[in-house]
Amino acid sequence: MSSVHIRLPNPLSPQVNLRRSFDLHKSRRASYATACLNVEVEAADNKALAEKSKLKLGLAKSSKEVIEAEAKVLVGTYARTPVVLASGKGCKLYDVEGREYLDMSAGIAVNSLGHGDEDWFKAVVEQASLLTHVSNVYYSVPQVELAKRLVASSFADRVFFSNSGTEANEAAIKFARKFQRYSNPDAKEPATEFIAFTNCFHGRTMGALALTSKQQYRSPFEPVMPGVTFVEYGNIQATKELIQRGKTAAVFVEPIQGEGGIYSATKEFLQFLRSACDDAGALLVFDEVQCGLGRTGYLWAHEAFGVFPDIMTLAKPLAGGLPIGAVLVTERVASAINYGDHGSTFAGGPLVCSAALAVLDKISNPSFLASVSKKGLYFKEILKQKLGGRSHVREIRGFGLILGIELDVPATPFVDACRNSGLLVLTAGKGNVVRIVPPLIITEQELDLAAEILSQALPVLDQHK
Questions:
Q1: Rounded to whole angstroms, what are the CA distances from 455 to 96, 195, 252, 387, 448?
Q2: Is 351 exposed, middle or buried, given 0-12, 13-18 or 19+ CB atoms closer than 10 A?
Q3: pLDDT recorded at residue 49
Q4: Is the N-terminal amide bond of 190 cis, ω within 30° of 0?
Q5: 3-state secondary structure (DSSP) of residue 33
Q6: pLDDT at 53
Q7: Nearest C-alpha neighbor of 250 from the set 189, 197, 180, 157
Q8: What is the largest CA-CA distance in the chain?
Q9: How many CB atoms lie within 10 A of CB 401?
Q10: Where are the beta strands (DSSP E) in 278-392?
């Protein structure tokens, strides 16, 4: 058995300059090691590109200068990672100093086609040269085409476009209340309340915030929208007692919770919700802002369970990095909505819809979805081999390319060590879950590298007990 030792590309800190050892008894791993040895040449090329880009834009500054400037001019709502990114290609990102990172965060599950996808870029440039924005006073072809594609590929009959996930959920709240009023015209007080679940996240605007379970998100802005009851995610018996006719307008649930810690619903739970909502005259809303559009290996996460909602909200990956949200509804729901009930100046503009069509064209391809499933199974198995049973690792969960590593300690030191070794991952849950949501185009070789970095970085947790 032969092996080769290489240093990870461009570590941020010499103190965490971990060395890697790879078993080359399989030809695939041999070819992977060869590819890694070429990374310095690639990094040099990308560093030159980043420098050229900075000079062109008048941004020839160091990370330190940018971070210091940010602190003076932006509202302090983000506890940012101390990295200033300048360019990206595929699953790689480069900071202003030209250091390379393997991106396993994808802009929080947004960049499903990676960075600089050629077809996406072509669609954006061509549309930008024709028409960018007209508002919803007028019709535009890309918006109608995207709506047709979404309807054809889902349970839905109609679409409402927004600009983000939280806006999509705000629209779903309004649609649910209007539906109850429309469906029960003789009711003195139509149903207005909502059910949501522990660990859920639906957004930061006031309605969506009221549906988000984490108290630290809600408490600074209370009173939020009243009428929301939280119940344990997956607890059928507890939920059964709360869904009531004439009271519950809708149930909001994520088939897979992302921000909450990568928890998946069961088929039994979602089937129960469907039945209970039908019995009570309530709407079932699936929030697939993070877990939808191919991330699970299914086009829509709920397809894995064979349960279909009345409303589904989408956003993150839909336009490949441009701001968009969508609310997909059945005809029964849409029939309750009239002119002027909701709207948006920017939503569904020609530019973002053309970008979204390019994304949907690729991700909806059955062979693309099959590759996501295959890579997800492969990576989960590799993670179990390298991390399973080791100190501080409680569980490795998720499916497709939305995975979580639950720890028995805060994950931040681990995430920092990974970053210092050239790997970008996120936290989730109560801060003790490592969230892994890479671009869906990631290769098995890149997944091997990510697993190795995670494995080598894990001992840092022993220093932070």
A1: 27, 40, 36, 6, 11
A2: buried
A3: 58
A4: no
A5: helix
A6: 55
A7: 180
A8: 78
A9: 28
A10: 283-287, 311-314, 325-329
Residue 78 neighbours by CB distance under 10 Å: 8
Residue-wise DSSP of 403-434: EEEEESS-SHHHHHHHHHTTEE-EEETTTTEE
Q: Tokens in use for 295? A: 């991330």
Retrieve residue 100's tokens. 């390379």
Q: Judge contact between 325 and 117, C-beta under 8 A.
A: no
In the chain, which stretches have pLDDT less than 70? 1-60, 465
Supply φ then ψ for residue 86, to 5 degrees: -120, -30
Is the distance from CB of 199 to CB of 235 less than 8 angstroms? no
Is this prediction's pTM over 0.70? Answer: yes
Cβ neighbours around 139 below 10 Å, total: 8
| Per-residue model confidence (pLDDT) at position 48 | 58
Tokens at 4, concatenated? 């080769």
Find where tokens 């090691």 sit.
33
Query: Would you tell me how many other CB atoms lie within 10 Å of the CB of residue 134?
Result: 12
pLDDT in the model for residue 153:
98
Q: How confident is the model at residue 61, as a pLDDT?
A: 83
- Which class for 182: exposed (0-12), middle (13-18), buried (19 or more C-beta within 10 A)? middle
Over residues 317-357, the pLDDT tens digits come to 999 999 999 999 999 999 999 999 999 999 999 999 999 99
| Amino acid occupying residue 297 | G
User: Are the CB atoms for 350 and 125 separated by under 8 Å?
Assistant: no
Sheet containing strand 426-428, strands side by side: 393-399, 402-407, 433-436, 426-428
160 touches 329 (CB < 8 A)? yes
pLDDT value for 102: 98
Closest CA to 243 of 190, 189, 280, 198: 280
